[in-house]
Amino acid sequence: MPRSVNSVASRARRKKVLKHAKGYFGRRKNVWTVAKNAVDKAMQYAYRDRKTKKRNFRALWITRINAGARMHGMSYSQFMGRIHANDIELNRKVLADLAMNHPDAFKAIVDKIK
After folding, report:
1. Which fold has domain 8-113?
2. Which residues lie closer than 8 Å to 99 by C-beta, 6 or more apart?
3. Cβ neighbours of residue 14 under 8 Å, at least 6 residues apart?
4. CA–CA separation, 61 and 101 (whole Å)
């Protein structure tokens, strides 16, 4: 009996990988073995960097809050300590947005915790 290879599924798998590789440079976009390796590596980077993005944004928010707090004569750690002591339930994302785009509202928060 002849061997059955299910070429429909094989072709679909390859097409899916080559579709992911669309836009890559050189043989990475159209040669199966090269594209498969490139797409696998890209998926690893994507998984890793979804976690890294969260760290990067938290660091950015802390930097912005620190800059806003220092304009009012406080350090970041003093500011956050007083925020928690006064039971103000604003997260770093919101505080950073206020510090950057709404300095009057941020100043009101600083005045409330001083």
Report:
1. c-terminal domain of poly(a) binding protein (1.10.1900)
2. 64, 65, 67, 68, 69, 106
3. 32
4. 13
Contact status, residue 98 vs residue 106, Cβ threshold 8 Å: yes
* DSSP 8-class letter at 50: H
Distance of alpha carbon 86 from alpha carbon 65, whole angstroms: 17
| Tokens at 6, concatenated | 């299910």
User: What's the pTM?
Assistant: 0.80
Say which amino acid occupies 24.
Y
The pLDDT tens digits for 47-98 are 999 999 999 999 999 999 999 999 999 999 999 999 999 999 999 999 999 9
